[in-house]
Every structure is written in structure tokens, then in C-alpha cells.
User: What shape does this take?
Amino acid sequence: MKRSKISQHLKMHSRRTGRTAQLLLVVALAVSSLVLVPATASAVPTKGAQKVSLTTRGITGTETFALHVGETEVLAGTASTEWSTFSTTLSVMATGKVVVAFTNDGVIDGKDRGLEVESLAIGDVVLPANDPAVYSEGAFTPLSGCSPGFVQSTLLACGGMFVFGSLNEAGALDAAIDPHGNQRFLPVGGPADIDVVARGHFGGELFEVKVGETVVGTASATRFWRTYRFTRPDDLEGEISVIFTSDFASDVADANLDVDYVETNGQLFEAEEALSTGTYVAGEGCVTGLHLSSTLHCNGGFFFGDVVPRSTRADSRR
Assistant: This one.
């Protein structure tokens, strides 16, 4: 991302100074709340100690950062305004969540601090900060500001952190899930309570999944088709819906949410067959109806009908 573009983005987001201690506390609490589970495809394990490298730069050249593996700080430094790579060697015993925290957000000499992270490398595995598998809090996008999620941004503009996954005992990097239990890459096996296949036109489109009037989960869509998995209580019944909540349009961006299908408990619901309250119709605008479309252009939702209880299994997927 060019620096001039970063500056424009940062001007869109105003913040107060003197919040470093508060942000550090938020980061610590958020890191402790994240749960990590084995992903479908982990990085190939490497025996012995591994080199870890972080490529980063700062908006003002005064930004400080810390890299944690589990509860141990393994690397810290100050980012210059040029891309620089910081490296260290991990102990063979290093395991746990791999987190890059931006530790001194604020304003200096009238300039707003921001930390850009290009990538993190562990052994031979290189993971870009804007990879769909990286969870963040404090990462900035023009569409959703600094909302937490898998937002595919390289810029921490509001303090916060990137969570690259978890280093397991075999030396492999497992993918992260967010505090709501949503994961970009799903684990192997286990029943899927609700699977939603969706993508955003711009990246960062926010949506929620409801059963009846109960929100069972929220997510931030990437620009690529992904399966988002949510859990619903055993006794929760009612109409299942996917609600687009962050419609946005400007000269350079138009946020829309595509939904392919929703599957739960053996039932498959196609978006083209659902009642829509957010699909644009030429000459009419976003009106309620059966529009044979998989796109939500406005804040609104797809309503798929009632789901059966979890104890009742459909015989087959249609």
C-alpha cells in the first residue's frame, strides 16, 4: 500500500492520544480470549529451532511492536518508515499463539502513528498479514474502519494486533479462530452447525447469521469465496437468515455481499431461492422479494425458512 494512500485512510479515522496503556491492556485481554484449533492444512513441521522474521514499517518511523509466541515475547523493536525485516530464533520449546502487537498507537508531531506489517515468516513458511487466515484487531480498511475480524489488511491503525495462528508442538502453524468461534479455515471432521458460503465485493463486508431473532454469529467477508462456520444451541429453532450489515458506497468502492448457500443439519438453502430484503432491482431499488439473486446490495438479508431441530437429521443433502 502506498504511503499517500495510507495517509488518506488514516485521515478518515480520528483518535485520541494517550491511550497506549489502555491499548496494551485490550491487546492482552483479546489475545487471551482467542481460541486456536488445528486447521485443515497446517504448515509442514520443521524439527529443531526455527528462525522467525517479521517484515514491517511505520507511518512515522516511531512505531513500536512486539512479537509473542504463547506468553513469551520473542521479538520487539521500532519500525522505520522503510520496509525492514526483524529476525530471531525460536526455542524448540516455543508453542502457542503467534501475535504481532502494535504497542504505541497515538499521535506524534501532528502525525498519526500506524504500523504496517507485510508478512511473518516461521521457518520456510511465509504468511502475509493480509492473508485471509490472519485474524486482526485494530487493522484498518476504508470500508469497516478498525473492526476486528479477518479483514485482509496490512495496516494496524488503532493499536491492536495480528494473530497469525498458533505454533503447535510439531512446529507447524495452525490457523486461528476469532473470539466468536469463527475460523477462516475449518478443522477436519466434526459436525457443522451452520455453514455459510459467502464473499464480499470489496472485502470486509460484515454480516450476521440469525436463527429466529437470535444472532448465532458474525463475520467479515473476504473478496474470495469462503465457508464460515457458526454454532447454534441444540434447542434453537426458527427461520435462518444471513443479514448484510455494513453497506457502503463511494467513488472508489461499493460494498456488496454474495451468498452462495447455507447448510445446516443436512438442509441446504440456496440464496437464489431465498426471500431477499437487500437485493437491488433496476428501477425499483432494494425491495423485498424473490429476486433469483445471490447478492445483497443494500443492508438487508436472505431469509431461508425454518431449520429443523438438531436432533432431526435430514436423510440426504438435496
Observations:
- The chain has two domains: 3-177, 194-307.
- The CA atoms of residues 39 and 187 lie 5 Å apart.
